[in-house]
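Ticket #4471: structure export looks truncated?
Reporter: QA, pipeline team
Priority: medium

Steps to reproduce: submit the single chain below to the structure queue and open the exported record.
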Amino acid sequence: MTWTPPPVDPDGTEELVFVGGDLSVDGLVNAYRAGLFPMPVRDGLGWWSPVRRGILPLDGLRVSRSLRKACDRFEVTFDQAFDEVMAACADPSREPAWITPEVRAAYGALHRAGHAHSVEVRAGGELVGGLYGVAIGGMFGGESMFHRATDASKVALVALVERLRTGGATLLDVQWVTPHLASLGAVEVSRREYLALLADAVEREPALSPPNS
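Actual output as written to the record:
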């Protein structure tokens, strides 16, 4: 039986909402639709909902002149190397190292079910950057990104935003705003506002095609 995530209190102050559940495909989809995402904690599997949620407005991405030039130096693809992108994001030398083998396997299954997507950035055929996340309707939940060449992860983000805008998406969730994401245009909204945006987004037509379609 698929577990059902607990309701998220729009005005609650706890960011770790629940510990338990599982990483099944249906469980993950239900959680994202409820505004939750997983991150392991000491006591098991934690489900999080930031009080101040990070989003990147799809019309608010800041693309500098140098970044625009960088976009011309790389080849960008979608859903061609999901497992490789996850493996790069899960590099144990990166902190925090929360992408466990169980998380990788779960999101691989979510990818094969059509809900998780990757953006790959290559130079000379070599994977040098990318990102992955979860798409439900017009919502994309960014999970992690990596780069092995200057600006490669930013190029992946530019490509993602362009694809989402073309597909009619309305919400790009980045979970928490870091200084890096803020420099690219990410902003914070209240949990209540985020849940309202999410409720609208997940009922829209899919903004991204299922992988391998």
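Status: closed, not a bug. The export was complete when the record was re-opened. Leaving a note from the reviewer for reference: The first helix runs from residue 25 to 34.
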